[in-house]
Amino acid sequence: MIKRPDKDEYYLNIAKVVSNRSTCLKMLIGAIIVKEDQIIATGYVGSPRNTKSSIDHNFCLREKLNIPSGSKYELCRSVHAEQNAIINAARAGVSLLGGDMYIYGESRKTKKTINAFPCFICKKMIINAGLNRIISSIEGKENFKIFYVKKWVKEWQEHDIIEDKYKYGK
User: Fold this and answer.
1) How far apart are CA 23 and CA 123, in angstroms?
2) pLDDT tens across the length of the chain (170 residues)
3) Distances from the Cα of 67 to the Cα of 60, 71, 113, 117, 129, angstroms
């Protein structure tokens, strides 16, 4: 019997292909935004347009400065995949309201799938962009985790942002 992937698997697989454009030396991360069953934007982790990436420099600035993963994002050459997808939609004049974002991540070195959960900065951008769901790859699994943006907002209304259960890189 022929088995087709369901829509969430299908779109997450496309985000995986997008991740191959990443310019980070440690992680491959890709994001796509889908609205009404149509891909409206893509993004991958990479340096700002027309600037040198970690691949171009042949070293990771954060690693060179001994910055632990998940902190001081401002000292990274790259823009997160989620941010680039939102920015690319804005450049094209496309509304994200009501769309879903699919995020796939893997280690460049081991090729193993990682938890591609958005960081706090990306979560705030996702909330303000008006997206409905975030579908993220899960470490070591063929499966994925679905986050509902309205639930993030509710949790942050009831608790502080720092108490968030699902953290970037965790």
Assistant:
1) 22
2) 999 999 999 999 999 999 999 999 999 999 999 999 999 999 999 999 999 999 999 998 888 899 887 778 788 889 999 999 999 999 999 999 999 999 999 999 999 999 999 988 999 999 999 999 999 999 977 789 999 999 999 988 888 776 666 555 44
3) 10, 7, 23, 20, 29
Is residue 32 within 8 A of residue 88, CB to CB? The reply is: no
- Residue 135 φ then ψ, to 5°: -115, 115
Helices 81-92 and 120-129 meet at what angle, rounded to 10? Answer: 30
Total H helices, total E strands in the chain: 6, 5
Query: What is the β-pairing status of strands 100-107 and 133-137?
Result: parallel
Q: Which residues contact 54 (CB under 8 A, 6 or more apart)?
A: 23, 24, 25, 47, 60, 61, 77, 78
What separation, in Å, do the N-terminal and C-terminal C-alpha atoms of the chain show?
Answer: 37
Rounded CA Rg of the chain: 16
Crossing angle of helices 120-129 and 149-158, in 10° steps, is 120
Query: Distance between CA 18 and CA 141 in Å, rounded?
Result: 19
Contact 53, 126 (CB under 8 A): no
